[in-house]
Amino acid sequence: MLQKWAFSGRFKGYSFQSFQKDLISGVVVGIIAIPLGMAFAIASGVKPEYGIYTTIIAGILISLFGGSKFQIGGPTGAFIPILFGIVATYGFENLLIAGFMAGIILFLMGIFKLGSLIKFIPRPVTIGFTSGIAIIIFVGQVPNFLGLDQIEKHELFLDNMREIVLHISEINIYSLLTASICLIILLLTPKFFPKVPGSLIALLISTGIATIFYPTQVATIGSTFGDIPSKLPNFQFPDITFERIKQLIQPAFVIAMLGAIESLLSAVVADGMTNSKHNSNRELVGQGLANMVTPLFGGIPATGAIARTATNIKTGAVSPFSGVIHGVVVLLVLLLFAPYASKIPLASMAPIIMLVAWNMSERRVFYHVLKTKTEDSLVLVVTFLLTVFMNLTVAVEVGLILAVVLFTKRMSDIIVTEKALPNPETKHEKMDTHIVTDSHDCPQISIYNVEGPLFFGAAQAFEQQIMKSINYRPKVLLLRLSRVPFMDTTGEARLASIFKDFSKHGIVLISGIKPQPKSVLQKTGLYELIGEENFFEHTGDAIDYALSQVNRHKCLGCRHFAFKECQVLSGVEKKVVKKRSVSLS
Description:
two-stranded antiparallel ribbon, 59% helix, 24 helices, five-stranded mixed β-sheet, single chain, 8% strand, 11 strands, alpha/beta
């Protein structure tokens, strides 16, 4: 079944020319992925080879079983603070279990078709935590950039900043020189050699200089983590217990949610670059499978990598096979050149990760949302600050809650309930609200225009507005609901309360009700209680019925109403006004 899913329709019309394009793309992306995989692993608090294992296994599985033809999967910068916190709190073995559990969550999300729900996460929340993660990653690489070897790493941002300040006098000039060389090459390579992978060139040159001129003066991968083995680790199923599941369910859920968001964002970017369309649910299934298998070989959590996916597309990839080739390239490098990777200085890795953090910071979008000075700006800033100074879990939870509360407040302000009368100065004497005043109203028929969603955030204001203005007990209450697109049970309960109170002395008529609110009233029984005969498609029909229910000769104050004979109170003078019948819509 999985084989059929992996290949159905994704390699249609595949040719040798297609393979050539995929081969070039796969090799280029594979070369780029090697230093990134190691760097992300080191920044996450684990050995560099675990990043390589993740790049190989997750990269191949995500390409085969994911929902995007061009997605490149592997370890990403967005995971760094999450994984570092898990390793620091629970240990590496529990990180593998949390990653495995996250894979199950992602797989189930895809199976139950929850991929589309990710789009309901407000953009200020995603921009806020992405920018916050970028800050954490960038600052986290400052010690390696400056060569602060004895610095202690903490989970909280402020603690890490304090450590940097306390040890700033211990800068290693050789590390600073190595990192600066790497950074300069990283910045200049795209300008002069746009088709050359800058990270690899920067890594090779800076490593070569450090190895030749001051080999013992800078910390390297080998001196810090030991030599990288030239093979994949053995298969080992983690020791999962019920206690560990309870302990790790929250970290696993955070990994799954972040992985889902990042992978689907990357797939959307790929869609925009290729004019294609990914399958979000299938993408989650592929991500789930990858994250279930990768921990069995010592790999860390993986997701879709936006930068590598974009590079894959720009270098001409035409199918998921380029992602498979990228994983194979990394495997071959591991088998053939692993001993050389041990000589890479940590100072050479720092600028690479810093540049990734800079590129993922969403700084332009952040400023764009911030300068609007709206509720979105508040959600953005709160999510950003909580991500930096607390953690991603708290930031996303608070950000989502704040966004929902502000959205509810905004939607409740949209509901408008106003009294209306026919306006003789408009064509067909359309219903108008501004002509209703204390001295110009109808005491027997109250007509209300209701606009906006009638839900829990607005229902109370709706009821109060109605009840406050009908204290003189008119004979007929007509509610025009043609501009109410949605009603929930709270809105229905408020409408029921109005009906219950008003029906003691008059009748309630409703015109123009939409299918969704009508369905709610039918399901709760309020539709039957009000009476089908009191629902009208057009306001004009409701007015005609209302006129048959009132005493036309006792109407005062409705100077512009559709009564042929209406007694009007104008100041202290009472007179009979002959009026034409009105056609209302």
